[in-house]
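Hi R.,

Here's the chain you asked about this morning:
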Amino acid sequence: MPLFYNKVQRANPSDPDAPKKWYPVLKSVGKMEVDEVARLIADETTLNPKEAEMALAQLEKVLINALLNGQTVSIGSWGSFQLTISADGAATEKEAGPSKIRKVNVRFQPGRTLKEAIAKAAFRQASDMVSGKTPPGTTETES
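And the predicted structure, written out as C-alpha cells:
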C-alpha cells in the first residue's frame, strides 16, 4: 500500500523574503488504536485479543520504567527508545542543573528491519485517493 502525500507551499523561516518552495507532506489515512493492534496480533498468534492487549500494556509499562531509570530500550530489529533533553545553557558549571532543562524528549532510533521496510515505501499524491473511499480498515484524517 502506498503512502499518500499532499503538496504544501512554505516560506523559509530564516529568509522570509526568499521565494516560497513546494514540499511533499505525508497525509495520514487513519489511526490504529491499541485494540485494533491487539486484534491483528491475535490473528497472527495463539494469543486472544485481550491477551495481546495486555502484552502491549505491559510493554508500555516496561518501556516507561526503563526510560525513567535512564536506560535505552532496544526492541530487537524494530529499533530503540531513549530519553534526550532540551536545555538552556548556563554561564557556570554550578548553574547547569535541572532548572535549565526545558523539555524531556523520547527519541526512537529505527532498527535495520524497520529501516529496510521503510526504504521500500511507495508514494502517491493524496488527490489520487478515490473520493469517499479510504484503504480498508482505516479512516481518512489529515495530518
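Helices lie at 34-44, 49-68, 112-119.

Let me know if you need anything else.
M.
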